[in-house]
Write the structure tokens for this entry.
Amino acid sequence: MTTDARRRSPVRLHVVSGKGGTGKTTVAAALALALASGGKRVLLCEVEGRQGIASLFDVAPLPYAERRIAVGSDGGEVSALAIDTEAALLEYLAMFYHLGRAGKLLDRFGVIDFATTVAPGVRDVLLIGKVYEATRRSERGRSAYDAVVLDAPPTGRIGRFLNVNTEVAGIAKTGPIRRQASSIMQLLTSDKTRVHLVTSLEEMAVQETLDALDELTRLRLGLGVVIVNAVTEPHLPGEAIDEAATGQLDEARVAASLKEAGVGADASVVAGLIAVGAEHAVRIRLQEEQRNRLEGIRPAVVELPALNEGVDLGGLYELAHELRESQEF
Amino acid sequence: MARKTPRRPARQPSRSNRARVGPLRGRLSDVPALKVDELIANRDISIMVCCGSGGVGKTTTSASIALRAAEQGRRVVVLTIDPARRLAQSMGLSELDNDPKPVSGVDESNGGRLDAMMLDMKRTFDEVVESHASPEKSSQILANPFYQALSSSFAGTQEYMAMEKLGQLHAEALGSGRWDLIVVDTPPSRSALDFLDAPERLSSFLDGRLIRLLLAPARGPARFLSVGVSAVTSTISKVLGGQMLRDVQTFVAAFDTLFGGFRSRADKTYQILKDPQTAFLVVASPDADALREAAFFVERLAEDHMPLAGLVLNRVSPPVAQGLSAQTALAAAERLSEDDALTAALLRLHAERLDTIGRERSLRRRFAAAHPTVATVTIAALATDVHDLSSLRSVGALAAA
């Protein structure tokens, strides 16, 4: 996508899901940084109460307020918000119903507590409602944010999470809840919303990704990009991968080379090196198998490298750069 | 905001200002060992609950421990609360359903067995309704649109149903003797321990004023009508719309007699979980995120006085050959890169692995420093993905080693 195309891109809400442990939060943060380039204002939201964004950016736990947490290299900025259901509900009641005191009364009757912790489903409605509000908000005649990135629940729960408003619209036949639920589903199923899935090249993660793609398609949610995270680069020369994986590396040759390099290595070190090589090669071959399974899926696939030093702010910018280079966002 | 109703204690301890207690420095050699085989052999243990953040191999851990227990003579049922098809995948099964099904290929020569099931929350809910309400009332409930959304589509119902199902399995285990060990695989991340809150949540609702307000029309309009009540009712009606409020009220009225049973069964299951017959296993992988979540689970379990057996640390990088430092390896790789690319690559991989091992050890030390009494077992990462019984067996053997 060219810069012009990106400017024209209608996508305002980027939902990032993926199997747990594949780096969903990291990718969501990197995507927010990438989208902020070129002077854009981006909001990064989390809804799981884990304070994952704060620990990633190494800042104090986020309150229920939009805070600037990073700036782009060319003037853009990323704000972050950890959505709290209770605060979101009170805010909603105040905003749409001007319920200052009645809100307190509701609280006294246990309505707020019921809605945010006891009643199934309401949490998700509130969380998405807040994301919807931030996506649609305008300030001084223009959108408050150019894009909103949602670090969403993992693939196992993503369909239920995003589709909750369809269910709500099903039980609220008329009235304000019905209208709100319908407009939210309209946004989520429009070309303004894209759902990206993060995966690793591991069997179960890829399977969950494929299952999630089916589910999202069934729910008519807009598919974005499949982001393959933490891809291990092959270190061994191509022809050595198969030999290493099947235990056919030449120990004598490795021992001779070590000697030549002046490394005093006994048989156990040589065997250890061969073993490390074998594990690596097996991993690379598995990755290749899983990569093949992703071939032919409808969404574009973007790969991000494994960060060997662990993820820090520098690493995030590196991943953001990769995402931008892919020109898929 | 001032709160007049007594609120449940904060459901989750705050993550922000946690004081760390305990020695500041942890030595890995001082960490008590978690002995999985002793846990399995202990017939007093009848429930094992695996919890931890997503993607740490929780399902694999529960499945492999369940398999190992079965092959050592326990009669095991493994329950997964996760909506994704993880357990089925890792056990090489195409699908599971709400009734435990025997897993084939298990070595039963020691008298054990292994059954597996995945929680189907809608069916569990329907069955509860059907078995605890009159036929007439249950068909009325099952047809209620509000019930249908609640039982099939809403996050949060799962936790209530998990308690329900666990209670059922436990009762069946006691009654029929079909099983003597239940292994529970909890859902990932935030909601992993939410099911522990189910009884308290139900109580806060059932003992609160809201339910009386919702039931008021059914019990006669004039009964609780104070100024506050009518203000609240009109507010709720304004927000929900009259039709939805009426549906909710109809549902609550129809469900009224069932709530109590839900609560008492959930309470009972909660007590069983607190009992020494239960062993909680916190599962993590050796990265900062997963260990932070593990610390959270350990602390949460301690707050609820739940019996923690220990930490299972999955996917730990396997050790490398001793006697070759990362620096030496990298320097040699540099010298060899022209002549022997293969050996140079092996040396770089060796150095990289040593780095990873060092980073993992320092994360583990930090965890041990804050939680010095948590027994731990580490399971080395396998090069291949775990997706069948034989690889589950290998993981089980590693866990018990």
Notes: The mean pLDDT of chain A is 91. The first helix of chain A runs from residue 3 to 8. Residues 93 and 171 of chain A are 20 Å apart (CA to CA). Strands of chain A lie at 13-18, 41-46, 67-71, 77-82, 138-139, 142-143, 147-151, 193-199, 223-231, 300-305.
